[in-house]
Amino acid sequence: MHSYAHKNILDTLQFSKEDLNFLIEKTQRMNLLQESGKAFGILNGKLLASLFFEASTRTRLSFEAAMERLGGRLISTVGFQFSSISKGETLYDTMKMIEAYVDIAVIRHPVEGSSRIAAGAVNIPVINAGDGAGQHPTQALLDLYTIVSEKGKIDGLNIAFIGDLKYGRTIHSLINLLRHYPVHLYLISPEELKLPEKYKKNLEGYPMTWEETTDIKAFWDADVAYVTRIQEERFPDHREYEKLKDIYKVNKELVLASKKETIILHPLPRVNELSTDVDDLPNAAYFRQAKYGVVVRMALLCLSLGVNFD
Ligand code: NCD
């Protein structure tokens, strides 16, 4: 078994290029097993705790679907309101107890760094499903898998990130993976929502190159355009959000003006930044991206649990 076995998935900085290539290969294998009906039963007898203390649709449902499709089972809690954390219990105590119940836990929490605290409390593998404005590693892994599946390669691509680069955890995570490849990034955002310095530091000394711009037209040169929502819930001052919320809109006209083969990705949910008139264009890859999430998470659950599926 590879270095994934019995490991937490907390931060995309933990992955080497070799790890990423291995995961892509394993996900392709998992996809074949899933399509031929042979995936069910691989996680027979295993139990997942699905702990979502912050809003989620795709991430929670795709993890739960992944577990069920492997024949594993799950227990879950959604929101603070219905967990003992609302009575003052610490995350540490909650995790200590969860450890006694299940084989693996997936956690989403509004506080940056919380998944590391959760993982530090237990000996079962913990998967970070989004910690505040910090990291969302499994989304990044499925985004990478989407790019490989849709474009057939990563090397040499121009990849544009558009929107909230300051608070968008999916961006913070994906750029750490892309740094291992010779790609060029266009970081398109308003001045107020630029990528924070601490994330730029992680890119130094890698084959990736990048440039920042406020001009959405940089989009026209992209092979992959990754559009993101302005993260309303992370703004300390709501007036600032109101000012920036409609700053960019990716619509049909803009997509038709770009390269013919440009694919549009979005982690979803979308608000105003991505128009529904893009949905019918062949460039729109975001619903396929959400679908890839299930097989990627199937592979990750098996790898973290140390269960082989060759
Ligand atoms: C993202 C998230 O939760 O960070 N959604 C997701 O997991 N697919 C993106 C977002 O909320 O904007």
Automatic annotation (TrEMBL):
Transmembrane segments: none annotated. Keywords: Pyrimidine biosynthesis, Transferase. L-aspartate binds at residues 87, 169, 229. Pfam families: OTCace (PF00185), OTCace_N (PF02729). Residues 7-147 form the Aspartate/ornithine carbamoyltransferase carbamoyl-P binding domain. Its EC number is 2.1.3.2. GO terms for biological process: 'de novo' pyrimidine nucleobase biosynthetic process; 'de novo' UMP biosynthetic process; amino acid metabolic process. Coiled coil: none annotated. Pathway: Pyrimidine metabolism; UMP biosynthesis via de novo pathway; (S)-dihydroorotate from bicarbonate: step 2/3. It catalyses: carbamoyl phosphate + L-aspartate = N-carbamoyl-L-aspartate + phosphate + H(+). The keyword Transferase applies. One of its GO terms (molecular function) is aspartate carbamoyltransferase activity. Carbamoyl phosphate binds at residues 58-59, 108, 136, 139, 268-269. Belongs to the aspartate/ornithine carbamoyltransferase superfamily. ATCase family. Heterododecamer (2C3:3R2) of six catalytic PyrB chains organized as two trimers (C3), and six regulatory PyrI chains organized as three dimers (R2). Catalyzes the condensation of carbamoyl phosphate and aspartate to form carbamoyl aspartate and inorganic phosphate, the committed step in the de novo pyrimidine nucleotide biosynthesis pathway. This is Aspartate carbamoyltransferase. It comes from Leptospira meyeri.
